[in-house]
Amino acid sequence: MNDLVSITVLGFFSGLPLALLSGTMQAWLTGAHVDLTTISIFSLLHIFYAIKFFWAPVVETHQRRWQILSQLTLSFGLFMLASIGPERRWAFVAAACLVAFASATQDIVIDAYRSYVLKPQDYGTGSAWAQVGYRLGMLVSGAGAMMLAEYFSWSQIYIFMGCVMLGGVLATLCSREPESRRSIRPHSMLEPFFDIMKRKHAFSLMSFILLYKSDVVLTVALMTPFFLHLGFGSAEIGIAVKGFGLAATLLGGLVGGMGMARLGLRRALVLFGILQSLSGLSFYFLALYGKITWLFYCTIALESFCSGMGSATYAAFLLSICTPAYAATQFALVSSGMAVTRTVLGASAGFLVTKLDWPWFYLFAMVLGLPALGLLMYLPSWEAAAIKRPL
């Protein structure tokens, strides 16, 4: 199977479990009359994605075996959720934790896989297609599952998703196994961390990782409550965000990948970083002028498109700083930075809105991305942080 096709297909199976642990599971729990407090606690399942670097060194060697094992475990976990049901609360929680752990483990291997099969000049394109697959996987397990719920029980839907997940094993077996991945030696958890921290401008590098997408994270943290506050209906928001917004995100990712190939990584990060920050102005104007339908759709399209461009380039940057021998662990480590940013800013968004009100909140979110752009300008030799290697 062609490498880009493999990356896209594996991206699909990487994104598939996410909605099954969040929005789709919330719908199932709500239908089972589980209280809101308990439902909100299930969001803690995502902590497995934030701390996956702890067991990444174990996964680093024999990655293909771990990839297949994690996919089989995912299917088994989904079958368990279907057979147990929310009525048996603690058994259901245990099965959900198993799915989250297996999903995070699969992400470790699939994320690292891109660094082995792609040449540095193809990081942007590869990251864009991985994003396309990932979003489509989320769409199938999110909106797709919600549509199926009109005709089937949630247990039947989770059994179906478990069967779909078995296709990931076939995709893994059909994908090329790079020689560089077979020769990785075991190492401790600290070796990949020290490998990054001993580089020139290491502190600025880690700060950039934490800050580059911070403006986007804060902007979308309360997007649905904001649209509801303006008077838009739930159905209209769902169609606009899940349909219109998803298409704009995928298109933005592909444009970002192609743009990075022409501009180079550093200039693409600067340009797309500026654009994703400026796209927050559309939220500001919407907050200022209220419910205007055409502005509502323009806001979603602009933010999604610019965020897609920035995400593809950002993912390519994360790949570029990973040493081949530590790719799985280092990518798990640096990508966890985004999880930290999402958690901190998401938790503080409500407080900021109450203090600033919506228009000033979105202006603040837009300004939040400027320090990361300043780091790129300040460090003309920032490329020293990236690993230059042939594959």
The name of the CATH superfamily of the largest domain reads MFS general substrate transporter like domains
Q: H/E element string?
A: HHHHHHHHHHHHHHHHHHHHH
Compute the separation of the termini in Å.
18 Å
Overall spatial form: globular
What is the fold named in CATH at topology level of the largest domain?
Answer: Growth Hormone, Chain: A
Averaging pLDDT over every residue, what do you get? 84
Range of helix content: over 70%
Total beta strands: 0
| Strand residue content | under 5%
Number of domains: 2
Q: Note the quaternary state here.
A: single chain
- How many helical stretches? 21
Give the second-level CATH assignment, the architecture of the largest domain. Answer: Up-down Bundle
Look at the helices and sheets and give the structural class. mainly alpha
CATH class of the largest domain: Mainly Alpha
Main sheet characteristics = none
Computed over alpha carbons, the radius of gyration is 21 Å
Task: Name the poorly predicted regions.
Answer: 384-391
Q: In words, what does this structure look like?
A:
This protein is mostly helical and 391 residues long. The chain folds into two domains: 3-186, MFS general substrate transporter like domains (Growth Hormone, Chain: A); 191-385, Growth Hormone, Chain: A (Up-down Bundle), CATH 1.20.1250.20. The protein has helices at residues 3-20, 23-31, 36-41, 47-50, 56-60, 63-84, 89-117, 123-148, 154-165, 167-174, 179-182, 190-197, 202-211, 214-221, 223-230, 234-263, 265-278, 280-289, 293-320, 327-367, 370-378. The protein is globular and about 50 Å long.
